[in-house]
Amino acid sequence: MRTDTSPTIYRHDYVPPAYWVETVEMGFDLDPALTRVATRLTVRRNPEGRTNTLVLCGESVELVQLQINGKRLASGDYQLGNGLLQIPNMPDQASVDIETAIQPEQNTSLMGLYVSNGNFFTQCEAEGFRKITYFPDRPDVMAKYKVMLRADKKKYPVLLSNGNLIEEGDLGDGRHYALWEDPFNKPSYLFALVAGNLVCQEEKFRLEDGRDALLQVWVEEGNLDKTQHAMDSLKNSIRWDEERFGLELDLDRFMIVAVGDFNMGAMENKGLNIFNTKFVLANPRIATDTDYANIEAVVGHEYFHNWTGNRVTCRDWFQLSLKEGLTVFRDQEFSADMIGTASGRACKRIEDVRVLRQAQFPEDAGPMAHPVRPDSYVEINNFYTVTVYEKGSEVVRMYQTLLGREGFRRGMDLYFARHDGQAVTCDDFRAAMADANDRDLTQFERWYSQAGTPRVKAETRYDSEAHTFELTLSQSCPPTPDQERKLPFHIPVAVGLVGPNGHDIPLHLDGAPQENIHGQGTIVLELTQARQTFRFNRVTEKPIPSLLRDFSAPVILEFEYSDDELAFLMAHDSDPFNRWEAGQRLASRHLLALATSSQGSGTSGDTADEAGLGQAFHKTLNDTSLEPAFRELALTLPSESLLADQLEVIDPQAIHRARVSLRKVLAENLREDWLATYHANQTPEPYSPDARSAGRRGLKNTALSYLCELDDAAAHELAQEQYDNAGNMTDRVAALAALVNSSAPGKAAALEHFYTEFEREALVVDKWFMLQGMARATDVAAVRKLMRHPAFTLKNPNRARSLIFSFCNGNPAQFHAPDGSGYAFWAEQVIALNAINPQVAARLARSLERWRKYTPELQAKMRPALEQVARTKKLSKDVLEIVTKALEN
Hints:
- This protein has 26 helices and 32 strands.
- The radius of gyration is 28 Å and the shape is globular.
- By secondary structure, it is of the alpha+beta class.
- Its EC number is 3.4.11.2.
- Belongs to the peptidase M1 family.
- It holds the Pfam family DUF3458_C.
């Protein structure tokens, strides 16, 4: 189906650059209609290079002038075409002067230099710098930058770039300038520029070495009251990285800038982090507990990149997880440490695994499946994936599981000692971990090179006379595109044995030294073969195995627990993750049975076997020894997307009916318990996003959502009362969601009130669209009507995601309507977004990539929609790669 000429880039074709760039000097005359960029590169031949041709990348830029060592080149002295500027016969060392002209206000891709609400911003990862000037735009070319910004002083009073401010002043013609210098080598993808009418909150922060650093959070006028949490998160991140990894802030200042038009969550540009407003702005009026937690995590993530991504970067984009997977692991650990309790850490772990299972496991099983370190790509933007990020984080976590926390720190220390200031590979990181701990991690490389989610099957045998318990583990991994056969992985499997009294049995493993035991109750087994048996001695009573504790590896565990065993583990397992996991398995078993029995029938199926699950829920709901946050997670049923991933053939309607039916049964049978829980977890004190308060609100609002499944007047009144009296956005949104998904007579009025109250708050309006996009009653016609609302625009990624993505990815029963209307709508929106912002369009295109998993009736309507997109003229390579792989695999 592929009709373009975009080449496939292969990892094994990596060639070092012919020339290194030592310094970059840039001058910008900023104007939204036409910005002129003067760039001077000092280049030096790479002894390992294979040519004397300097190759520079450029896209959507006008080349005005080109000079080598002060001599202007004529058009015959270089080749320009296909996004490349090639200059042959270059000397070993040279000064290259390039003048380009660009049109920022026409740049709707939001890559390179663009304008948002009258201000200038940049986004250069992965290949946006080439939209500013011609440059060897690859991560292994690292240089020192000095940047001069010139602009109208009245329109753009703030001029920012990477590093340290060297000089600023007036130019005498209504314009002013600022000169910035970054003292550290960096690749071009970390370049940043901001110019506009902004204000900032700033603080001096004392670093561990005694220096004072200037911290700034820059926002548009009117948003300063929403920056304190981001500032606090930044300070906490700096202190945590000093204490946990001995890593310090290396610049005189650190800046965060918030922008409303942004493709990503945030960007770690050296010293000048540019953020989507969604991950900066917060106060109790506009932000939920989830928003506060996400801001802390993303601020931490981007700050931690200063070392894991900036000081040590990627040799090539195939190594993307080297920085992203490692930094996701770091931000997850940071967030868990900020909570500060064992229960809080467990809840954070559960939330992270839930994301992995709902998003990454399906990717592993689809046409876009790829290893953590991909082998090829057509468009690199398509590989900023949950596999690279979240599965990459799990791979890093397995190092810590295998080596212990101290061993992991030794590996990190060696990694920085060896590679500070370099562009390196995933193998370099693995080598540092191995060498620092005198471990052979050769087999562990397969986590980087093999795609797919391994399956670990467990079998047990208990000998009551010999008092031995045998655990046999076997592993396999299904074929993925271009990888039919998989070799065994190195899988850490954390195991405990729970006795009949509900307590862990002390572990005595054949052949294991005592120091390998992680506490008496848990041991990490290393599964390296296709099949291995482990024997535990001195087991005087038959235990129930607690397997894969703390989700010690990103695998699918297969073990035939009985319902009674799952209920027992849900009540007694000392590992909080597996306690939650037991409940999820029990609920999934019932939901999948309901969905299977109702497929094609239009009914919810038999609910006769739900008494055991109801008893387990009743016990958890009323167990006040458990933290509210944990109870909320334990009482939340598996999502429709997670259930779909466990079926051979997906029938979204049957899954939806099953889940709604079970929620209604649990609501009815536990009505008084839900009501008591709701009232017991009120938070009348002034709002605080701390973990304990957020946990109480979460449990209370979970109870409210179940009560509203009853769809009676009392439940409606309770939700309406909470909406009317809510003192924070968490409670207000939860009440509105409960009303929107019910038949409450006041829900239309509540929606209208919500919009009127917050129409000037863009992030809250996004919530308003999202709630409706995901509402059970919202069909394609309703989404089209919402798109005609004055507040909706496709040009803003947050707004497009709030409605269109929420509907296509978060409302499966309506999106997968039997008449195929959802697919026709999807095709229209992918094509429309492709013309505006290919990167956002490609993300939406992935909603149908697993179309072959659905019922034949739905497949017959999905394929024409995919083909319609594939036939579109001027289709970006971003989107074409997605739909082509979907149709071919």
